Amino acid sequence: MPTLQILGGVVAGIGIGYIIWYIRHQLAAKNVDFDIKAKTLKAKEEIQTMMDEAKEKAEKIITEARDKHDIREKELITLQEKFLQKEELLEARRNDITNHEQLLKTKIEEIEALKVEARQKLDERAKKIEDLAKLTKDEALDLLKHEVAKDHQDDLAKLMATFELQKKEELGKRAQDILVSTIHRLASSTASEITVTTVQIPSDEIKGKVIGREGRNIRTFERVLGVELLVDDTPGAIIISSFDPVRRQIARVALENLISDGRIQPAKIEEFAEKAKSEIHEIIKQQGEAACLELGIYNFDPRLVALVGRLHFRTSYGQNVLNHSIEMAHLAAMLAEELGADVYISKAAALVHDIGKALDHEFQGSHIEIGIKVLRKYGVDERIITAMKSHHDDYPHETIEAVIIQTCDMISGARPGARRDTVENYIKRLTDLENIANNMEGIEKAYALSAGREIRVFVNPHDITDMDAYKLARELAQKIESSLSYPGEIKITLIRESRIIDFAR
User: Fold this and answer.
1) Which residues pair with 446 in a beta bridge?
2) Are 327 and 413 in contact (CB under 8 A)?
3) What is the mean predicted confidence (pLDDT) over 472-499?
4) SS3 sequence of 428-447
5) C-alpha dist (Å) from residue 443 to 95, 180, 273, 460
6) Pick from 326, 323, 332, 321: which is nearest to 356 by CA?
7) Helix (H) or strand (E) holding 368
8) pLDDT tens by residue, 151-162
9) Strands 315-316 and 443-449, how do they pair?
């Protein structure tokens, strides 16, 4: 019995719990439905609000677009009216022009008819005059000219003379003004170069090393470099003497390097001589490049630029040829500007006008002929060659640039102290002396020393024997006597030296 009661109570409790759960579940479902309906209603209200706002915006945009369209339409109507007015105006003007053209054609035809009529009347009148005078028109004109010239011949001659004199004075004054202005703008200094170079030494003890035992060092130096060393009582200095500026500079560099090295001996002298030659060749290249850079000339062949640099060690009547050429180039550029000539052609022609002097000791002919060949070889503009070849009147002046180059050459060379005729004559005599020796068979090289009072000749010992050497020296002396004019006597020193080199391995 109690068990049944307990079981019934459990069943009743379960039933009551289920009923309670069911009631709660139904209430929760109703709440969810209510929330869904509330949210749905709210969303519909928001959508309706958005649609109303969008509708208002759309109506506003449509209204603005309609207003703009109306304004644009009014503007287009206004423009169309203006266009029609202009078109009507143009049409009226076109009609006026057509009428004017027709009127002009009519006038031209009338004028042409009048011209023909007038010409006929003039011809008839001239015919009548010719018949009366029994002279043609040309005969009457010639007669009139002859009578006028006869009556006023003296007056015309005086007038022409006066006019010619005035023009000469005006042109002379103008030319003088141009030259004075140009020279004033280029007031460069000038200095004549001499034939000796002084090398400073730290102490007089160096002189003994330079001379060497029994003079072997100084003899080797003079033999290798072709200069004369003057080691005298002058304190702190050794003088290098040679008429050839390139030799002097090579000797100066070699001697300075030897003194710095301290090991002065024949082998070192030969080694430093070769190094000095390389250094001088580099200086020559730099001088040529610097000259072209200064003048703004950039299209020359590098080999031609090197030849320009060689002029740095060349003198003409004591005047440095490269400095002279650069000075001429500046003068030529200024004159060309004043006269309306080609500035570049004038500058370039002035720079290379003496280029033949860089090679005149190697080739036969005047420096102008050599220069023309060199410039054509390196593809220089023919206008430059035409301008430079007339500066000594060897060729006619074909262009205004040629006249400018000759004028600049005379201006630069005529500066006070710029040139020395005696120096040039002296150097020419020494050059001729060396050329006589170098052109003889069997002689390897020859150097003129002691201001031309001695010539030192070196021969190949394999080709010339001792007996041949005596004979060659005598032949050279006779050739010098017959070819040159010189004061006093010239000492000929012929050197035949055998050098045998072998290697122990």
Assistant:
1) 457
2) no
3) 79
4) HHHHHHHHHHHCCCCEEEEE
5) 103, 53, 21, 7
6) 321
7) helix 367-377
8) 666 666 666 666
9) unpaired
The H-or-E segment that residue 230 falls in is strand 228-230
Q: Which helix (H) or strand (E) holds 241?
A: strand 237-241
E strand segments, 155-204 = 196-200
DSSP structure string for 453-493: TEEEEEE-TTT--HHHHHHHHHHHHHHHHHH---SS--EEE
Tokens of 266: 């024949």
Residue 306 to residue 462: CA distance in whole angstroms: 36
Give yes or no for a contact between 444 and 459, defined as CB atoms under 8 angstroms apart.
Answer: yes
d(CA 97, CA 117): 30
Residue type present at position 92: A
**Nearby residues of 219 by Cβ (< 8 Å), 6 or more positions away:** 212
Model confidence pLDDT, tens digit, residues 295-334: 888 888 888 888 888 888 777 666 778 888 888 888 888 8
Token pair for residue 301? 């062949």
For tokens 């004549």, name the residue: 192
* C-alpha dihedral (93, 96, 98, 103), degrees to nearest 10: -160
Of the candidates 449, 470, 451, 448, the one whose C-alpha atom is nearest the C-alpha of residue 459 is 470
Residues in the chain: 505
Closest C-alpha among 446, 460, 461 to residue 491:
446
Distance of CA 149 to the CA centre of its chain: 57
User: Is 208 strand, coil or helix?
Assistant: helix
Residue appearing with tokens 């054609």: 105
* Residue partners of 438: CB distance under 8 A and separation at least 6: 445, 446
316: β partners: 319
- Round to whole Å and give the CA distance between 435 and 16: 150
* Matching residue, tokens 């002919």: 365
DSSP state of 332: H
230: left (phi over 0), alpha (psi -120 to 50) or beta: beta
Tell me the one-letter amino acid at 471: K
Which of 411, 376, 412, 371 is closest to 388 using CA atoms? Answer: 371
> What does DSSP say about strands 491-496 and 443-449: parallel, antiparallel, or unpaired?
unpaired
pLDDT at residue 482, as a whole number: 81
Neighbours of 492 (CB within 10 A): 17
SS3 196: strand
Average pLDDT over residues 423-436: 71
Instruction: Name beta bridge partners: 196.
Output: 241
